[in-house]
Amino acid sequence: MSTPEFRSGFACFVGRPNAGKSTLTNALVGEKVAITSSRPQTTRHVIRGLVHREDAQLVLVDTPGLHKPRTLLGQRLNDLVRTTWAEVDTVGMCLPADQRIGPGDRFLIKELAALRRKPVIAIATKTDLVSPARLAEHLVDIAAAGAEAGLEWREVVPVSAVANDQVDLLASLLIDTLPEGPPLYPEGQLTDEPEETLIAEIIREAALEDVRDELPHSLAVVVEEIVPREDRPEDKPLLDVRANVFVERDSQKGIVIGKKGARLKKIGMDSRGQIERLLGTPVHLDLHVKVAKEWQRDPKQLRRLGF
């Protein structure tokens, strides 16, 4: 009997904002690599998570949600999504079961239909939030939306990342579409994002949780440095992490800092534990809030903030 060939390749999840893409990436990888927040437009970087199997390696690329752009940042995020689609082996389209298929989804499905020879899997996400009857109706709607756009779904699979339902099945279906080839990353590695990016995302997520309604998209975080504290005994290392939280206006600076610095302190406390787990070392986190006027519309500032 011949041994099964090793498969490796790239897959990305697409869907309108807040369709459950990042949560699904984390569930498949089994670790928190993409930031998740219940507010749309949280993801700005393409974060890759790795799924290791004995006979395969699946590299998951997490894209921002495609949406009608109102700023230069929005336009760049959309361009990033389309570039990603062109480079991956397979696309998974996330359609949350607790929402009807809307114009935004149909717009996306039409765009995916234009990819032609690329396998596209429809993923009905958030199935834990709906009844079996509603899920059945949703699956029928997904099939109809694909047919209407001239897109033949490779598979239609219902999944709940939160309840860990059918996550393994989805991994297998994605792996089945990959080409044969050697592993692309070392065994045990979970993401190829630099630590600075992951730390910045953790801090931004903690900040978003706290200032949710007041300034959703005006936050950017840049990690300035990660340095070992000098004069520490070898068995008690400490890393100094210095990061800047950027907002667009002076009034927003006060919102992030909070009364007597209380909110900034809470953001630091919420993110420090996660950063320590990521780095495997105790961390002293030094956060500063700075104003970068209208950064979402300014090409020079966008570049400086990593977009």
Explain the layout of strands and helices.
Elements: E1 7-14, H1 21-29, E2 47-53, E3 56-62, H2 72-87, E4 90-96, H3 103-113, E5 120-125, H4 132-149, E6 155-158, H5 167-176, H6 195-211, E7 220-228, E8 239-247, H7 250-257, H8 262-279, E9 283-291, H9 299-304
Parallel strand pairs: 1-3, 1-4, 4-5, 5-6, 8-9
Antiparallel strand pairs: 2-3, 7-8
What do these coordinates show?
This protein has helices at residues 21-29, 72-87, 103-113, 132-149, 167-176, 195-211, 250-257, 262-279, 299-304, and strands at 7-14, 47-53, 56-62, 90-96, 120-125, 155-158, 220-228, 239-247, 283-291. A hairpin with a 2-residue loop joins strand 2 and strand 3. Residues 37-45 have low confidence and may be disordered. The protein contains nine helices and nine strands. By secondary structure, the protein is of the alpha/beta class. It has a six-stranded mixed β-sheet, sandwiched between helices. The chain has a three-stranded mixed β-sheet with strand order 7-8-9. The chain is globular, with a radius of gyration of 21 Å.
